[in-house]
Design goal:
The complex is a heterodimer of chains A (489) and B (276). By secondary structure, chain A is of the alpha+beta class. Chain B is mostly helical and 276 residues long. Chain B has a domain of 109 residues. Classes of the chains: A alpha+beta (489), B mainly alpha (276). Chains A and B meet through helix 3 and strand 9 of A and helix 5 and helix 7 of B.
C-alpha cells in the first residue's frame, strides 16, 4: 500500500529536472527511505531507477544498478535495473552483472510492470525480470562475448527459463560463439567504487556491544590491538545473496586465515544491523549454522548501546522501518590494529582471497627497504656531482684554491669520472620513471626529467644562469618524492 | 486417459462438474506440459466454472509446483494467474492466491492484504486471515496496524491473536507483550501467545516472568504450565537449581496440580536434578 511519503517521493522523482538531483536518492541511508516498509522501498527505488533511465543514466548511478543485478532479489528492482542499463552506452562489464542477475533468477521469473508508480506486478504485465535481463544482454551484442560460457551453462539448465526466453538466450549464445573476446572488465569512467580511510572517533567509546555469549565489550576491546575484518548483517535478512551469504563467506574467510597461519592475529567481528531482535543466542545460532565459529577474536555482536554512533562511523548503507531493516548494501571493512579503516569492500560481492590478502597486508605492512633509500641517495648524489665536476682549468684552479684553503691538498684529475656521473644521473632518471609506473604516481618523474635535462644540457654547452643548481634541486626533490610512495598493491 | 484428453473433458463447460473434477483428478501433475498448465490456469480463474472444478484445478497446479520439472518455466504465467485470482469474489480462491503470492514475495499481494486490514478493500477475506498471511514476510508494513489491533480489547479474539502472532517478530512490541502477559484480565490464550512472543523477543524478560508466574498462587494453570515448560526447556539449569523457593514450589505442584502443570513440573525437576 502506498503511503503519502511514497507518493511525495514519486512526485519528487517525476518532477526532477536533472539526474544529478536524483543521485543522492540512491543512497540506502537517505532520509526518504527512513520509516518506509521494505516493499515501499522497493517501489520507490524501482521508480527512481526508471526515472534515471529516462534522463540517461549518470555514471555515478551504475554501481547501484550493478549491485542490484549482482545481489538483488526483488524482482521489480532487478528488472528496473536491467531496464535502466539499456540507456547507457554498452560496455562489456554490463554482461558480467546481467549474467549474474540471470543466474540469480534461477527459475523465479516474475511479471513486472513499469507503467505506473506502485504498480509493480499486474495480471497482464507487459514484461518480466528475465525478459528485461535478456533485452539488456541482447543490446550488448558482441560485448557480452566474455560471458558466453556462463550464458551457455545457464542455457543448459533446462528448468530455468520459459520457452520464449529459452529461445532468446539460445539465439544470443549462438550469436556470441564466433565473436572475438571483448576487453573486460574495467569500470566505466566515473563509476569506480571509492575507498575511504576512517579513524575511530571518540564518540565510538559510547557504543557497547554484546557478543554471542552475552559478554559485554567496547569497540576498542573488539578491534584494537590486531587487524580486524568488520562486516554487517542481520538474521532476518530474507535475501540469500546478502547476509546469509556474507556470514557463510566469513566462515570461509575464517578457515582461510587459519590455513594462512594468521587466524589468531586477525580478528573477525560481525555486527548485526538489528540489535533489538538479534539477541546473543540468535546470533550464535545464525553464525554457527553457516560455519562461522565465534571464538577468540572472532565474534558476532550486537550494539546494545550506541548503534547510531557505529552507523555514523562506518557510514552504513542501511535504513529502517521502525526497528526492522528495510534496505541495506553489502559492506565489509578491514581495520588496522588502531581501528582505522584500511580498506572497505562495499556494495559488491567480495572474494575471500582478496580479504585474506588485504588483512595480511594490514598485519604485515611492507617495510621501506634500506636499499631503496640507498639507490635514491646515490642517484641524487650523482646528479648533483655532475654540475660540480670541474670541467676547465679555471674550475680546477678554484677547487685547488678551496682545497688548499681547507688544507685538503690536491685532488687527482680523473676525466672518466665525469662519464660515470652522467651514466649514474641517467640511471637515477630511469629508476624514478620505473617507480612512477609501478606506483601509478607520475608526478615525481616530471622534476627529475626536467632536472636531468638541465644538468646534461649544461654538459653539452647549453647554459643559462642558475641552471645547474635548479637541475640539482629538481632531481633531488623528484627522487625523494619518488621513494616516499609505496609500490601499489 | 492422457493428461490432454482428461483436461479436454475438464475444460468442457457443458459436462457435469463432477465429471470435470474427476477428469482433473485423473491427471498426473508430474508429467504436465506447458499447454496443460495453461489449461488448468484457465480453469482456476474462470469465475463461471463450479467452485469444485476450480478447486480441483488449483490443487493440481499447487501439486505441479513441487512435482513438475517444467513448472519453473511456466512460473511467470502462474504468478499472472494468481494476481488475477487474488481479486476473486470467492474468499477461498482469493485467500489461496494471496497465500501463494505473499510467499513468492510478489509486492502486489502485500499491498492487497494491507488494504484489507485498513478496510479499504472489499475482498471478502477476514482481517485475521490477512494478518496470518502477512506473517510470511517479516519485512511487512503491517506492524503499526497490528499493534493497534493487538492493543484494542474490543477487537475479536481471533483477529487480536493473529495480530499478536504477527508482532512476535517486532522488537517494538516487546513492552506490549509484557504488559498483556502480566494482565490476568486477558484471556489465557492471548497471554500464551504473548508468552511465546516475549520469549522470542526478550528471552531474559520472559524467563523472569516465568519464574514469577510459577510462584504466583493465583496464576492461570495453562499459563503456569507454559511457564514451567519454558523454564524446563530453555532455562539455565544452574541458575534455576539455586532458586530453592522455586524448586519447593515446583515440587508442590508436582504433587497436586492439574495434569498439564504436573507434567511440566516433572520435566522441570528432571532438568535441575542433574545440577542438584
Amino acid at each position: 500500500m502506498q503511503t503519502s511519503a511514497e507518493k511525495a517521493f514519486a512526485e519528487r522523482v517525476d518532477t526532477a529536472r536533472d539526474p544529478t538531483d536524483l543521485i543522492e536518492l540512491l543512497r540506502e541511508d537517505h532520509v526518504d527511505y527512513a520509516g518506509a516498509a521494505a516493499a515501499g522501498v522497493v517501489r520507490m527505488r524501482g521508480w527512481l531507477y526508471l526515472a534515471l533511465a529516462r534522463f540517461g543514466l549518470p555514471p555515478a548511478a551504475l554501481p547501484y544498478l550493478f549491485e542490484e543485478l549482482e545481489s538483488g532479489h526483488d524482482a521489480y528492482l532487478v528488472a528496473a535495473a536491467a531496464h535502466a542499463l539499456r540507456t547507457v552506452p554498452p560496455d562489456p562489464i554490463h554482461a558480467k552483472f546481467l549474467t549474474a542477475a540471470l543466474r540469480n533468477t534461477d527459475g523465479r521469473d516474475q511479471p513486472v510492470s513499469f507503467e505506473r508508480f506502485g504498480e509493480t506486478t499486474t495480471a497482464n504485465a507487459p514484461t518480466s525480470v528475465v525478459g528485461e535481463i535478456l533485452s539488456a544482454l541482447e543490446r550488448l551484442g558482441p560485448m557480452a562475448r566474455n560471458m558466453s560460457a556462463d550464458l551457455a551453462q545457464l542455457l543448459g539448465a533446462d528448468c530455468l527459463l520459459d520457452p520464449e526466453s529459452h529461445q532468446r538466450l539460445a539465439e544470443l549464445t549462438n550469436s556470441l560463439r564466433d565473436q572475438p573476446a571483448a576487453f573486460c572488465c574495467s569500470w566505466p569512467r566515473g563509476a569506480q567504487p571509492k575507498n575511504s580511510s576512517v579513524v575511530p572517533s571518540a564518540s565510538l567509546a559510547a557504543a557497547r556491544f554484546e557478543d554471542q555469549d552475552g559478554n559485554m565489550l567496547t569497540f576498542s576491546q573488539l578491534v584494537i590491538g590486531h587487524p580486524t575484518v568488520v562486516a554487517f548483517f542481520y538474521t532476518r535478512c530474507d535475501n540469500p545473496l546478502k547476509c546469509s551469504l556474507t556470514v557463510a563467506k566469513l566462515a570461509q574467510l575464517q578457515r582461510q586465515l587459519q590455513v594462512a597461519g594468521v587466524g589468531e592475529a586477525i580478528g573477525i567481528v560481525v555486527i548485526t544491523y538489528d540489535p533489538g531482535y538479534d539477541h546473543p543466542a540468535r546470533l550464535r545460532a545464525y553464525a554457527t549454522s553457516r560455519g562461522f565459529c565465534p571464538t577468540g577474536s572472532c565474534r558476532v555482536v550486537r550494539a546494545v548501546e550506541g548503534f547510531d554512533v557505529v552507523r555514523r562511523h562506518f557510514s552504513l548503507g542501511v535504513n529502517y522501518a521502525g526497528t526492522i531493516v528495510n534496505r541495506h548494501k553489502l559492506e565489509l571493512f578491514v581495520l588496522d590494529r588502531r581501528g582505522k579503516t584500511a580498506a572497505a569492500f562495499e556494495r559488491f560481492q567480495w572474494d575471500t582471497a582478496e580479504i585474506v590478502a588485504t588483512a595480511q597486508l594490514v598485519l604485515n605492512p611492507p617495510r621501506r627497504r634500506i636499499g631503496q633509500w640507498l639507490v635514491t641517495a646515490l642517484g641524487c648524489a650523482a646528479s648533483i656531482a655532475v654540475p660540480l665536476f670541474p670541467k676547465c682549468p679555471v674550475c680546477w684552479a678554484t677547487y685547488f684554491s678551496l682545497f688548499g684553503a681547507l688544507g685538503l691538498g690536491t685532488v687527482p684529475y680523473s676525466p672518466w669520472l665525469r662519464t660515470l656521473l652522467v651514466v649514474a644521473a641517467l640511471c637515477n632518471l630511469a629508476i624514478v620513471v620505473w617507480r612512477s609506473v609501478v606506483t601509478r604516481w607520475m608526478l615525481p618523474s616530471a622534476p627529475v626529467v626536467l632536472g636531468t635535462i638541465a644538468l646534461l644540457s649544461a654538459q653539452a654547452g647549453i647554459e643559462f644562469p642558475g641552471q645547474l643548481w635548479a637541475g640539482g634541486l629538481l632531481t633531488l626533490v623528484g627522487s625523494t618524492a619518488s621513494v616516499s610512495v609505496r609500490r601499489s598493491t | 486417459m492422457t493428461n490432454k484428453a482428461a483436461l479436454a473433458i475438464a475444460g468442457n463447460a457443458e459436462r457435469k462438474a463432477a465429471d470435470r473434477v474427476k477428469a482433473i483428478e485423473s491427471t498426473e501433475a508430474v508429467s504436465y506440459e506447458i499447454a496443460d498448465l495453461d489449461s488448468l490456469a484457465a480453469l482456476v480463474v474462470d469465475t463461471k466454472a463450479a467452485a469444485s472444478v476450480r478447486r480441483a484445478a488449483l490443487h493440481q497446479l499447487l501439486l505441479a509446483q513441487f512435482a513438475n520439472p517444467m513448472f519453473s518455466k511456466w512460473r511467470r504465467k502462474f504468478i499472472s494467474a494468481l494476481v488475477k485470482l487474488m481479486d476473486d469474489p470467492t474468499p477461498e480462491f482469493a485467500e489461496a492466491a494471496l497465500g501463494q503470492l505473499v510467499k513468492l514475495k510478489v509486492p502486489a499481494a502485500q499491498t492487497k492484504l494491507l488494504s484489507i486490514l485498513r478496510s479499504s478493500d472489499k475482498t471478502p477475506i477476514s482481517a485475521a486471515k490477512a494478518l496470518q498471511l502477512l506473517r510470511y514476510d517479516v519485512h511487512t508494513d503491517a506492524y503499526p496496524i497490528a499493534r493497534e489491533l493487538a492493543d484494542d480489547p474490543a477487537i475479536d479474539d481471533r483477529t487480536r491473536q493473529a495480530a499478536l502472532r504477527l508482532l512476535a517478530a517486532d522488537p517494538e512490541a516487546a513492552d506490549l507483550f509484557e504488559k498483556l502477559l502480566k494482565s490476568k484480565e486477558e484471556a489465557p490464550e492471548v497471554r500464551r501467545v504473548c508468552a511465546a512472543a516475549l520469549n522470542n523477543l526478550k528471552p531474559k524478560a520472559y524467563q523472569k516472568f516465568a519464574q514469577a508466574s510459577v510462584l504466583d498462587e493465583h496464576e492461570n494453570n495453562a499459563v503456569r504450565a507454559q511457564s514451567l515448560m519454558a523454564l524446563a526447556t530453555l532455562g539455565d539449569s544452574e541458575l534455576l537449581a539455586s532458586n530453592e523457593q522455586l524448586t519447593d514450589k515446583v515440587k508442590e505442584l508436582r504433587a497436586g496440580a492439574p495434569p498439564a502443570v504436573k507434567k511440566a513440573a516433572r520435566l522441570y525437576l528432571e532438568k535441575i536434578s542433574d545440577v542438584v
